[in-house]
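Incident log, structure service

09:12 report received: a user says their structure output differs between two submissions of the same chain.
09:20 pulled the input from the user's history:
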Amino acid sequence: MSIDSLTALVRTIPDFPKPGIQFRDITTLLADGPGLAELIDQMAKVAGPLDPDLIVGVEARGFILGAALALKLGKGFVPVRKKGKLPGKTVGIDYVLEYGTDRLELHEGQVPQGARVLLVDDLIATGGTAQAAARLLREQGAQVLMALFAIDLPDLGGLAALEQDGVPSRAILLFEGD
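09:34 re-ran on a clean worker, output below:
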């Protein structure tokens, strides 16, 4: 399956969540067995040579892709969650959104000091959530080898923002103009 075929499996929903936004809905790709397998294969081609200790997925669709990638690579998976979703003692980081603030958390001690991690999410737009997750991981003593996404919206600058923060970043699919 080609990159163009994968791109065609992503549904665009106009004016969601507000007018003027072209929402890239990956659930249609996730529902296609061969498409999902190809996406994970493509991500594994990028991630495998890095040989991370752990795959870290950002809530929520980053859990789906990150867990599948961890299984493919034979690595463990760690979720980074929104505030208040984890039952044990947590560490977290607050970050700014265009409409307020939010918080990301992970279980304290779940990412060992010196762990080499790969950060995974479904989509990168402005990069705020991914930057916060990378900072949280670094504060725990992890080395963020790369942030890897299924989709990049390059006009919004997220990959460039991560690169400026010293986080190598890649995406499998690009949707320009949004």
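09:41 both user submissions now match this output. Likely a transient worker issue. Closing.
09:42 reviewer note: Helices lie at 3-8, 27-30, 33-47, 61-73, 128-139, 158-164. DSSP finds six helices and nine strands in the chain.
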